[in-house]
Amino acid sequence: MNSNAREHLIALLANMTQLPGVYKMLGKSGELLYVGKAKNLKNRVNSYFAKTIEHPKTQALVARIYDIETLIVRSETEALLLEQNLIKLHRPPYNIMLRDDKSYVYIFISADQSYPRIASGRGKGRHQAGKFFGPYPSAASAKETLVILEKLFNVRQCENSYFSQRKRPCLQYQIKRCSAPCVGLISPEAYAQDVQNSIQFLKGDTPALNQELIEKMEQAAAKLEFEQAMFYRDRLSLLREMTAQQAVYTLKGEADILAIAHQAGVTCVQMLYVRNGQMLGGKSYFPDMIGDDLGQLLSDFIANFYFQVADEVPTEIIINLDFSDRAQLEQALSQQFEKKIQIKANVRETRAEWLELAQMNVQHAIKRQLSNHVELQQRFSQLAEVTGRSIDRIECFDISHTMGEATIASCVVFDQGGARKRDYRQFAIQDIQAGDDYAAMRQALTRRYKKAMLPDLLLIDGGKGQLHMAMQVMQELRLDAFMMGVSKGEGRKAGLETLHFTDGHKIQLSEDHKALHLIQQVRDEAHRFAITKHRAKRDKRRAGSVLEVIPGLGPKRRRDLLSHFGGIQGVLNASEKELTRVPGFGEVMAKTIYKVLHE
Prior knowledge:
By secondary structure, this protein is of the alpha+beta class. The protein is 47% helix and 19% strand. The protein contains 21 helices and 19 strands.
């Protein structure tokens, strides 16, 4: 891990919230390494970096962490449920103990008796048929829920062997925790109603249940059956006290929830995603938009995101701030995606809980961004001291190829607000000798600055040779650019970089210098941007050449195959059975493809 990434993690840990939530640990290329939940995010995430950590798996995980993302929720239970959804969706490599649901505690209601049993167990549906509810964060929380159900509805929890041998009611009946179905003290119909009430409670569907208890209490009081009325009153009190709807899994259908906020010059839009009734996480966006009307900014963001970026749109878009052209935007989205889409600003119950989560997270995201903004300002300030001139915009170039194959040049742009990704550029390098980095850099610089304005600092990833070549390009274009080259130190170790200037002098900043951290940050981003495009281009070429030799696999079917698995790597990793699931591919074709690729 380089010093830039290390400093980024230190800043993240220092500014992390103490609220409950889920954290995602990411690797150098943004890959998801681990998902975890926490009652206190700051304490839990900081514990990974304690010097006392000795477990080999944890040490290996920490060594690969380059970034950490968090999503705030309102309880540890919600954190667990979201964690489960993310693990099942992404299968992170370091979630070894959470590859399936065997470690989670569920409450189940058996389905094979006239008088069903309610109990808890680990592993959803592993041991018997029935209705399952959960998961629960711990065995203790499941047991607590069972105690509440005993008090509320008196449904039996005893083992079937014990139930079948009873001749008289047990102690549970005496303390009013069971209705004694074992000896027929309750009819199957009345017991079935208690079971149904238990199911309603476990699903969080309590309004009707609440109203039913109120009516029964009032009826008993009207008949002067005060003891029975007190019984229903106590049930009602318990129900109101213990009902805790978990918004992470009770929302039906699909929806995107968007919350926008602005603070200290930073505008953020937080998106939460719900699909098939499950929350699948969220993402913070910091749109480069100007205006005082946040509602209009949100409208512009929605239009840009769904028409230009998103591949699909859910039937509901829930927002925290209404805007004047909501009806027109609804109509346009519905026409574009050929289904009815609603944008809702006033929501209640579960959807209001989702919106509350989004608003909590947007405020946290802005706070995190502001802390990073302050750090960035300090880095630019120290770079100005090193260079002796004011610098607001930096552009950095890098070259990526594999033995001269699929050469790509990247240009990334940073200013004092951070990375300006909309100004990034990539250049497919052509008509040069394979592996000639100087010629590749010359072509990229020429193509870029024939039209674009010069930045305050042109940063070249390379030493004297690359910088000298860049100076020649600037002379040919008759441009006066302030340039700097950055070459890696001994052993290519981060922190030992040398900065080369056009007048021939060079300096080496200390490893903890903020100006060096800024240069490393920009240089690393240029490298990431170049290598990502290069690998995509290279893999596309290789995919075509590998798949073209397979008999019966024409251009359309090759395209369908790559689309289904998301690229050649997915095809290579697919089993023969998975290949048969591609539309239009039978067992014979799947077997042929697998044999060519693997044998």
